[in-house]
Amino acid sequence: MARRARPLLALRHLTLVVIAFVMLVPFYWVVKTAITNENIYEYPPSLLPKQPHLFNFVDVWYLIPFPRYLLNSIVVSAIAVIGNVVFNAMAGYALTRKFPGRRAVLALFLSCMLIPFQATIIPAYLVTARMGLLNTYFGLAFPMLSTIVCIFVFKAAFEAVPKSLIDAARIDGLGEWRIIARVLLPLSKPAIATNVILSFIWSWNNFLWPLLITRDPQMQTLPLGLARFLSYMEDTTGALYAFAVMVLIPSVFVFLMAQKEFVRGLTSGATKG
Amino acid sequence: MNHTAWLRSRWVVVPGAIAIATLLWNAYVSTHDHGIVAGRVVDAAGRPVSGATVMLFERGFVTHQERERKISDADGAFRFTDNRSHSIQLEADAPGLGRTDRRIVRLWFAAQDVQLPQPLRFGAAK
Questions:
Q1: Per-residue pLDDT tens digits for A82-139
Q2: Set of chain A residues whose Cβ sits within 8 Å of the Cβ of B59
């Protein structure tokens, strides 16, 4: 049985290696172009970088206000991540409780997921403007402070926690807030990791909303900076791809840091003491 | 023991290592960013050329613009002291010798102090 399984396992691994290779080739090409001055349309293309160097990254750092864009993106993403973890945990916990109209709220949430953000962007803009948040960090993060998908991630994680634990906490005198903070969240690390990764990446890559609400170039985020850089540097593919790599690195970093919990899934971590 | 366990968490170790590396890099930059660009000018035979005009071009978005000129001394040496750019070009001009090729000098940070390893060299006299 084991002998028959071995070729199958090898075939499976080979297939996975091929798929991984196909998926990684574009990333390799971006990095390769970033460390050379090669034209990406060159034919035949060279597989290995010729005369690699890192000066394209230096160009990106100095030719546009990259540090400022980076700071803006970090601040906005941090606000979005904190907002997501806090508000989604609260909403997720509420949805695990029984209350009149719960099913209607769930149906409302699910139906709202079908509406694309582009359809609600004008009301969102008007609300943000009325609150005086245009051109501010909080305004940039505002629509990303809570996302329905992540609310359901917390709801699923909280529902997997044995009810007896919550009852025991309540008997010990813990209020609802402390039950979330002291009992549910420590048992829901995969859900927190999922929230952190998804909200960070969504906020980090967001282009349309920052484009709409920033008026001062000093408040622009990295995706806007990338568009601006592209308009200036059409002929310098190396620097452009270096910019893309520099935008990509923080997302990859956050994913690698949280991937253990992210990959572990939701329910497996939720019942661990 | 448990009180220090959080110090070994990857959420502390990795950002901490990045913060330390950033601090060290910035400390290095702050002690090497006086904008000094120094070098020598020699003729085709390798003899120093005095009185050559050395031009420093600073990178703009698409082109390089001339920013400063210096005259080489008796040893053919020149020294710019307030370069602000991260990417410069150098060219020397001397009566009777023509112009050198433009030397592209890429720096790791703006205003990095640099001593040219190879001198600016004139071709054969025209």
A1: 999 999 999 999 999 989 999 999 999 999 989 988 899 999 999 999 999 999 999 9
A2: 63
Question: B99 lies in a domain?
Answer: yes
Of B10, B62, B109, the CB nearest to A257: B10
pLDDT of the residue at B90 = 96
A172 lies in which domain range? 65-271
Query: What span, in angstroms and rounded, lies between the C-alpha atoms of A106 and B108?
Result: 55
- ipTM, two decimals, is 0.86
Work out how many domains chain B is built from and give that number.
Answer: 2
Global pTM value: 0.82
Kindly report, residue by residue over A216-261, the tens digit of the pLDDT: 989 999 999 988 888 876 666 788 899 999 999 988 888 888 887 7
Which residue range(s) make up the domain with B26? 1-31
| Six token digits for residue B4 | 């220090």
Has residue B69 been placed in a domain? yes
A64 closest CA partner among A227, A253, A216: A227
State the Cα angle at B75 between B71 and B78, rounded to 5°.
35
Residue type, A52: P
Residues belonging to chain B with any Cβ–Cβ distance to chain A shorter than 8 Å: 10-11, 14, 59, 61-62, 85-87, 106-110
Same domain, residue pair B65 and B111: yes
